[in-house]
Design brief:
about 120 residues, mainly alpha, 2 domains, two-stranded antiparallel ribbon, about 60% helix, Tscrpt_reg_HTH_GntR
């Protein structure tokens, strides 16, 4: 999935988000083993330290945990933690900006809601 290696986001963040996405899509489930840093580095042709940094980021967030001598596994409740973090990020990074821009160009709450309701993508 690391097809966006050219974008501004660091590779280790892309690895981290890819694993989070797989948890959200139920490709990886709670208590299931995730690919090792060696597997990730070989598959995506990246430095093992970069893959490890992405994995460790998820450990720090309470998404993954290590079973000594076996590998990394998805924590219980990981999917809910990811959803909550992404909802907060979505609100901060998108909703607030949309509201700010709407106010700036004179779109009121009713018109903004109508635009959203008429959007077919949702």
């Amino acid at each position: 999935m690391i097809e966006n290696l050219g974008e501004d986001k660091s590779i280790y963040l892309q690895i981290s988000e890819m694993i989070e996405d797989e948890i959200l899509r139920d490709i990886l489930r709670e208590e299931e083993q995730v690919p090792s840093t060696t597997e990730l580095s070989k598959f995506y042709k990246i430095n093992p330290a970069t893959a490890a940094k992405g994995i460790n980021l998820l450990v720090d967030k309470g998404i993954l945990y290590k079973k000594r001598g076996i590998g990394m596994f998805v924590c219980e409740g990981a999917k809910d933690r990811i959803k909550e973090a992404r909802r907060t990020s979505f609100y901060e990074n998108y909703v607030k900006r949309i509201i700010s821009e709407a106010k700036l160009i004179g779109i009121d709450k009713a018109e903004l809601k109508k635009m959203i309701d008429e959007t077919k993508e949702l």
